[in-house]
Amino acid sequence: MEEGEEAVVLSDNVQDFASSAGHVLETLWTRIETSLFNWHALVELAIIFAVAVAALQIGKRVSPRLRSMIGGSSFPRWVIRTLEHQIPLIAALSALIMLWVAAAALTAAGTTSDLLYLATSLLVAWVVIRFVGAFIGSAVVSALFSTIVWVIAALAILGWLQPVMHALDAAAIRAGSLRISVLMLLTGAALFVVLLWAANLLSKLLESQLAHVEGITPAAQVLVGKILRIALITIAVLVALTSVGIDFTALAVFSGAVGVGIGFGLQKVVSNLISGIILLLDRSIKPGDVIEVGDAYGWIRKLGARYAAVVTRDGKEYLIPNEDLITQQVVNWSYSDRNVRMHIPIGVSYHADVRLAMKLIEEAALACPRVLRLPAPVSRMVGFGDSSVDLELRFWVDDPEQGTVNVRSDVLLEVWDRFHENGIEIPFPQRDIHIVSAEGLNGTKETG
User: Fold this and answer.
1) Which of 49, 310, 363, 435 has a Cα at 20 to 30 A from 79?
2) Residue 68 CB: number of other CB atoms within 10 A?
């Protein structure tokens, strides 16, 4: 095609677009003229104004009572915050009900209700955005959701929603008896997101309620919570696929091949998931236990589907895969008993009163609040060193999650003070040089 012909085609396309845009604007102006400039429009505007005033009054009277009821409930904090965020919707929902009643009355009287339909559509869009936005933590996702809702509302107001839906449904592909259209994909994706959100919300609510049930161990609470979450997510996926008309028998072979591929790709993920369930069933570790895995020492804050969160005394949080807790050596300081015995080596001089030193060491341990009185601290003589008599203090604590270095420091400070008060010497390495004979040295000096 030559340059002149390309310019003619481009000019024709621009003219067609301008003609279509002008037709759309003309249609909109015609609808505005027929909807606003008549007495029916004045009646509808008056109804909208009256509904707005009444809804605001209802919101002012009902909102404080609802706020006090929600604040005094026993729901979890996140549920209370979410409900309080939705209190302003009382006025909007009241307005929606009154607008629907007014529109039905006008329709029964044989008059149009275009403005009421417009106000209702805009209000429904705002209510949906406000309600769902309270559960969306991401600003980008919230903005995307708001845009989609406003676009749907605009299409419905302009009367283009049904044509657009038919066009999306016409764009489809077939694989045997299976037919998948763009509309089906969009509907299924939207339904899946909603059901997944509802499943997560419901599982979180059930987990918070399980935490207050007496007689259920923390490990059992986590296990039941995991099973509920997996079951709810599975139901959400099945309902979403069924709702768009997908036949599972048609996907049997395809899903089997995909399942094998996903199984190899997610081998580690599945291994961690199964390992987490095994850990909860055999109760080898549970939330609140103090464990040591490699260089990580701390208490288990959370047992997740893939990992265990271990918080150290430094505030570091190690995310240890569940598989590592199965395959590696794990030291559980509170597996069967929270009591932990600690050992502190202490050396005293050979000139010191060893029995007095042992007594002072035991008294020093008892002076620390975290050291248990029963079993009582004991001091043992364990050997004769090069520079000192070697003693060892042994005592018990029942709160290892509070740290061990700090209690060792407290005990050693008490020992230091008592040794100084009673003249007990803490030795340091010493070496004595004995010269057997000086004659050899003199002979060497003369020869040199």
Assistant:
1) 310
2) 10
